[in-house]
Amino acid sequence: MRGRLAVTRPEVPAGLVAIPVRTALVRGGDDLPGIVRDAVRGIAAPGDVIAISETAVAIAQGQFVPAEFVRPSKLAYALSRRAGALATVNQPESLQLVIDDAGAWKVFYAAAMHAVGRLSGKRGAFYEILGESITAIDGYTGTLAPYERAIVLAPREPDAFAQSVCERTGIACAVVDVNDLERAKVLGASACVARTCVANALLDNPHGNGDEQTPIVVLKWRGASDGNPLVERPG
């Protein structure tokens, strides 16, 4: 465990605390709700939110493909060479999975519209057109061993998974996609989780993005007693 971190983002009220929680390496087929329950015992309490990395959820569900199992097409090689250095699709294997999902013509069209958009100062058309086909892919660069050559897909039914963790622990849960570029998104959550507040509280990525092995972050409210911003009030 990396220690308690005060959340000092202007997007959230003062008083939020993030506690990264270390676990054993998550593997395909693991009982991840059980791992989470044991890991947060004595750390999380009712009123907190357990934020779980989408990558850990997807791996436990078997939602990953070794890059060696993918045979990129000429289109995947050609387009990946033109992608930015930080883009998932700069890997031909990852881009081939996008092509398999969306179709070659749609990917080619998205690339053409992206090029046209850049000429007029607009960026992001490639991702807007392809939508979930892109966001469901987590490239293999920087992933913790032994998954450094695995392409991780989107987790299945993140809302249902988060609810199952809540039922096992008695504590609210969110499945989150967070990176070091100050981007955070709640993919699924148990009932009453304030998704916007949780996402904003994770913008500094307390999960880490390397070998920290902390796929769980417990968010706690230590502010004024007149309301917990992590939890939405029914009705």
Can you characterise this structure?
A hairpin with a 3-residue loop joins strand 7 and strand 8. The chain contains nine helices and nine strands. It folds into two domains: 126 residues, 60s Ribosomal Protein L30, Chain: A (2-Layer Sandwich); 86 residues, no CATH class. It is α+β, with helices and mostly antiparallel strands. Strands 1-2-9-3-7-8 form a six-stranded mixed sheet, sandwiched between helices. Helix 1 crosses helix 8, helix 3 packs across helix 4 and helix 4 packs across helix 5.
Features of the shown structure:
34% helix, 3-stranded antiparallel beta sheet, globular, 60s Ribosomal Protein L30, Chain: A, 6-stranded mixed beta sheet, 9 helices, 235 residues, 2 domains, alpha+beta
Radius of gyration: 19 Å
At the fourth level of CATH, the homologous superfamily of the largest domain is CofE-like
Helix content class: 25-40%
Helix and strand pattern: EEHEHEHHHHHEEHEEHE
Can you tell me the number of structural domains? 2
Strand content: 15-25%
Going by CATH, the architecture of the largest domain would be 2-Layer Sandwich
Approximate shape: globular
Number of helices: 9
Tell me about the largest β-sheet: 6 strands, mixed
Return the structural class: alpha+beta
Residue windows where pLDDT falls under 50 for at least 5 positions? none
Query: Major sheet: order of its strands?
Result: 1-2-9-3-7-8
For this structure, the CATH topology of the largest domain is: 60s Ribosomal Protein L30, Chain: A
Number of strands: 9
What is the typical, i.e. mean, pLDDT?
A: 87
Specify the CATH class of the largest domain: Alpha Beta
- End-to-end gap: 36 Å
